[in-house]
């Protein structure tokens, strides 16, 4: 193992820690320890994380095989699609964490891994997406996951979807949303509090204001996605720089409103987990 690289057990532990940390925080619209939602509870996501973690961290698997194995295991454990987006974002990060070396940080190694994704990775990722069958998956002329292999590389397939999906955009920008927006916001929030869950709430709300949530876009269209962004932005005083005890009620009201309208900012939650995972990897690596 290269100096600076993380062992399989460390990567698996960090992935699980990121998943559990995300569930510990109030994240309006998503499932969390304060409130269930969308027919799911915290325990559902805990089972999904535990089932998918061994595949995410397995150094013998390609990125595509990690995505497929983790997705199949997660759905088998829960009976529903709970963490496809998390798996898609975490698999390349996990591979990068295992291949860090002195002088080569996480972002640089990740960019190389993403550029080397091939047609087999695409086939496996497409199979995982079909297996999970996420809501609102529309039809496209090229790179439609439901049509099976088109012999695109995974990065080529993500490029075709980058303008309509933030996870696809992350693949083609080497996770710019995470490294340029999410991590700085998370670190700034952590500097304000010793309560990590409060910092995660700020991270969630920051992402909700910065980018239209892809899951909301697919299900409800751009107007509703923009309305959610606007509403989150209007509540900035309740979560920036961090939530205060007397502002949690305001955020819980927003949470109840979104869930009452069956609006789930699921992609935002995926990025929250991936951001925490990237932060833990970076802190633990010995580069």
Précis, in short:
It is built from 14 helices and no strands. It is mainly α. It has one domain: Triphosphoribosyl-dephospho-CoA protein (Orthogonal Bundle), CATH 1.10.4200.10.
3D architecture notes:
The protein has 287 residues and is mainly alpha-helical. The chain is built from 14 helices and no strands. The chain has a single domain, classed as Triphosphoribosyl-dephospho-CoA protein, CATH 1.10.4200. Helix 1 packs antiparallel against helix 2, helix 2 packs antiparallel against helix 3 and helix 7 crosses helix 8.
Structural class: mainly alpha
What would CATH call the class?
A: Mainly Alpha
Largest sheet descriptor: none
Q: Architecture in CATH?
A: Orthogonal Bundle
Topology, element by element:
Elements: H1 8-24, H2 42-57, H3 63-78, H4 84-98, H5 106-115, H6 119-132, H7 154-161, H8 166-172, H9 176-190, H10 196-210, H11 214-220, H12 222-234, H13 248-260, H14 266-284
Helix pairs in contact: 1-2, 1-4, 1-14, 2-3, 3-4, 3-6, 4-5, 4-14, 7-8, 9-10, 9-14, 10-12, 10-14, 11-12
